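Our collaborator T.R. sent over the components below with a one-line note: 'Predict the complex.' Nothing else. No constraints on interfaces, no templates requested, no preferences about which chain binds where. So this is a plain run: every listed entity goes in together, and whatever single assembly comes back becomes the starting point for the next discussion.
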Amino acid sequence: MNDPVIEGYAKALFEVARAEGSLDEVEDELFRFARSYENSDALRNALTDEMIPAAKRQAIVEDLLGAKTTATTVQLVSMVVGSGRGRDLPAIIDQLVERASSAKNLEVAQVRSAVELTDDQQTRLSAALANATGKQVNLKVVVDPSVLGGIIATVGDTVIDGSVRTRLDQLKARL
Amino acid sequence: MKTLFAIARFVAEEEVPHSDSEGITTHSPWLPERAEIIYGSIASVLIFFLLYKFAGPLAKKAMAARTERIQKELDSAAADKAAAATEAEEIRQAKGDIGAERDRLMADAAVQAEALLADGRVAVEAEMAELLTRADTDIATAKSRGIEELRAEISGLSAEAADRAVAESVDDATHQQLLEAFIQKVGASA
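Returned assembly:
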């Protein structure tokens, strides 16, 4: 069962982004930021440390995202961090992405790849995943060098693993 | 009374010592005067009588008491002697008993020591066997753990080497081939 607080924050962020008319862009930026946040201990510690004043944490967010994302994204992340919910940021953003996808009758498809996918590849991959799962998907690509090569796609409870990492792990297990 | 009169008459009839020509009276050089004999005899008899009458019983009593005391002392000494003899006998017996007890205790101690020694020997042997078994187990465990650790180490190093080798060998063209293969495979899996 989802945390009502997280759902509340996700709903608020969703409504703000939709009201601003930049839901797709903000959703994508937030998704990327959430993955970076999960992979960086330093960033996570800085944004969740209660000893650091909220204004200072918000300043860190603005420094990090100010030049790379839309103002709406910066403000939403800053608002969550400033209210002391930095620890819940990935969950809030994932809820927002799911809510946005549901609003468009789409299923979130999280794709982990060692390299960036071109727009053409993303389009064809979306079509392929829709074909394989029978659902229209909202593709979210995460660049993860630990994958080594290939792709790991997660659509709901379905995981399609075509990564070199997994093959290597299977080989190691066999050894 | 007659005796007294006879004595008095004897005294009165005493011969008067004759005087020599010069009127000097002489006495017998060998016998005392008659009166002296009589009075001396009476006094002696009286003294002996008094002694017999009064001192005799006292002396008898004293002698009897002394005899009784000496008898008592003799009896006491005999009793002491008998007690000493009894005690000596008891001591001798006790000594004999102590000796026997000592021998018995020594024998018991020897038996117990032997039993303890045997038990100790068995316990030590059992402990040694257990220690040897445990040591064998520990050695086997350590050996197995060492092999496992070595295997894990080799596996880890191999995995790391494989990761590096793969990461270095997968160039951009390979990445693109892998991506395209995945897209085609997923697209064809409907």
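Summary for T.R.: Chain B has a mean pLDDT of 85.
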